[in-house]
Amino acid sequence: MAESPSIDGAGLDELKTLLVQALEDNARLKAENAELRDEIARLKGFNGRPTIKPNRPSGMEQATGSAKGQRRKRRRGAKRAKVTITDTTVIKAEGLPEGARFKGYEEFLVQDLIIRPVTTLYRRERWQLPDGRTIVAPLPGGVTSHFGPELKRFVLAQYHQGQSTIPRLLAMLDGVGIDISKRQLVRLLIAGQTTFLDEANAVLRTGLQTASWITVDDTGARHKARNGFCTHIGNDRFASFTTTGSKSRLNFLELLGAGDTTHLVNDAAVAYMRAHNLSGKVIAQLTGHATRQLADRAAWTAHLDALGIGALAVTPDPVQIATEAALWGAIGERGLLGHTVIVSDGAGQFNVGRHAACWVHAERLVYKLDAFTEARRMAKETIRARIWVLYADLKAYAEAPTAATKAELATRFDAIFTSKTGFALLDRLLQRLHAKKADLLMVLEQPDVALHTNGSESDVRVHVTRRKVSGGTRSDAGRDCRDAFLGLMKTCLKQGVRFWDYLGARLAVPSAAAVPPLPDLIARPMPP
Q1: For residue 2, is pLDDT > 60?
Q2: pLDDT band at 55, cuts 50/70/90?
Q3: Closest Cα partner for 249 from 274, 216, 291, 227?
Q4: How many CA atoms lie less than 13 Å away from 144 in the CB half-sphere?
Q5: Are β-strands 341-344 and 354-357 bridged in parallel, bridged antiparallel, or unpaired?
Q6: Most exposed among 96, 219, 325, 403, judged by the fewest C-beta atoms under 10 Å?
Q7: Confidence band (pLDDT; 50, 70, 90) for 69?
């Protein structure tokens, strides 16, 4: 056995090295000990520990507890405190024998729901003025069509929150006595929803202006019988969904514009061009021209063609880089993503601005490596154990950051991801992950940043469910309404607002609870 090194007279750097080595040895020994226990159990004829397949390829996040950016599970409270009693009925006892004494009441709470059609005929007075004009008494607030606001709320809640299909929703309404056709039902879902679309866009804009970090993810989507992509942008305070036909970086930058299509050549745009190796001659053409701001993509493309940039056939593509840079410049000019960190799963299109990588996806790459020998399996599991320990300590650092812990964690990161295990595929993977050190250790610079994209993956499931239930969309209005309402519904959940109450407030349902604009709720300071 090797003699333990003495710490007498050791300097601070030597002590740090010894501490890192001790932590690594401890993680390795734990993994080896677990393997030996399993082997002993097999030799004795026992089954050993059961192999339980997790729901996701990596259980690292679940195994290390809750992290910032995750909603904590709320304890169940008393049901009585959550309901409002609308009616009280006293039930008298009958057939009491003589001498019985009254001892108060025993309460039994029953919740029920009344669903019935209500058809109102409004007889509006008509008056003819002396000048020949006719005046008709206005309809009550909230009444804008032949279907009332309460019915509209029910339809929107059932379709978006209840994930019902149009045929089933139509059958349900017919079953309770509502006379409505399929075309009328579709119009209730997608026609005249400008208020909701504008608020959904304002949610994204306010979220990008106020967030210190966001997570992003995308999933497949069908629109007009073609494959597309739905991109989620959000954090623990808001959510936004947008379906497009592309998942390129150019498309992502357009989404970050939150509805604004301006292309601007400013200092931020020039810095982007230089960082992406755009020709100095092209940069000089763009910065030297009097026109540096264009209203939309068509005007910007015409501008590039007029400068002769569109005809250049070189690498990197000057049109693509210049367009991305102009969008990035406009985003910064509007105060979006000032110091916001974008946390992604490592997909290239999301790597813009201040970027952080998801630890769960990084560890999953190690998990997925095929190891066909016992030595390789041991090497892989040892590395995974060390990553899990480091990840747990990064989460602890986020709760209570210190300068000493920051330096120690960075040193341990280098020690893990520069290891030579003898497993060639694993060693090359560790090198690639080490190259992403700045992205993976963004939490050391900004402790409130999420370490994973679990929030986006959780939010985007609602879109996946909608896709499985109803397939794709056939009109642009249908696509935009679906995305907007899913984002509003998720934002309500994050802000502690009932989606039912939100719909009632926006549709002017009589006696509905008031709900402030969601962007105002997002912009509120976080509670201490």
Answers
A1: no
A2: very low
A3: 216
A4: 13
A5: parallel
A6: 403
A7: very low
Q: What is the pLDDT of residue 75?
A: 57
Query: Residue 442: is it exposed, middle or buried by C-beta count within 10 angstroms (0-12/13-18/19+)?
Result: buried
Whether the CA torsion 431, 435, 439, 442 is positive or negative: it is positive
**The pTM is what?**
0.82
Answer yes or no: is 158 within a domain. Answer: no
Q: Yes or no: say if 271 and 329 are a contact pair by the CB < 8 Å rule.
A: no
At residue 218, φ and ψ (nearest 5 deg) are: -140, 160
Tell me which residue range forms the domain holding 402: 360-451
Shared-domain flag, residues 465 and 442: no
Q: Do residues 347 and 366 both lie within one domain?
A: no
Give just the sign of the alpha carbon dihedral 63, 213, 355, 463: positive
* Number of other residues whose CB lies within 10 A of the CB of residue 138: 9
User: Do 467 and 336 lie in a common domain?
Assistant: yes
Does a structural domain hold residue 326? yes
Instruction: Report yes or no: 494 and 239 within 8 Å, Cβ to Cβ.
Output: yes
> What is the percentage of the chain residues whose pLDDT exceeds 90?
75
Single-letter residue type at 12: L
Q: Please, which residues have CB within 8 angstroms of residue 219's CB and are 6 or more apart in sequence? A: 229, 230, 232, 460, 463, 464, 467
**Cα–Cα distances in angstroms (integers) from residue 492 to residues 102, 240, 467, 503, 516, in the given order:** 48, 12, 21, 10, 11
User: What is the pLDDT, as a whole number, of residue 1?
Assistant: 46
The enclosing H or E element of 219 equals strand 213-223
- How far apart, in whole angstroms, are the C-alpha atoms of residue 510 and residue 503? 12
Q: Phi and psi for 52 in degrees, rounded to 5? A: -105, 120
Weakest-pLDDT range from 70-79, 102-111, 360-369, 409-418: 70-79
Is 408:389 a contact under the CB 8 Å cutoff?
Answer: no
Q: How confident is the model at residue 51 (pLDDT cuts 50, 70, 90)?
A: low
Average pLDDT of every residue of the chain: 89
**Contact between residue 215 and residue 465 where contact means Cβ atoms under 8 Å apart:** no
- Mean pLDDT over residues 298-311, rounded? 93
Which residues pair with residue 264 across a beta bridge?
293
Calpha distance 231→463 (Å, rounded): 10
The alpha carbon dihedral of 166, 172, 175, 179 has a sign of negative
Residues 318 and 379 in one domain: no
Question: How far apart (Å, rounded) are the C-alpha atoms in residues 380 and 386?
Answer: 10
Identify whether 172 is part of a domain.
no
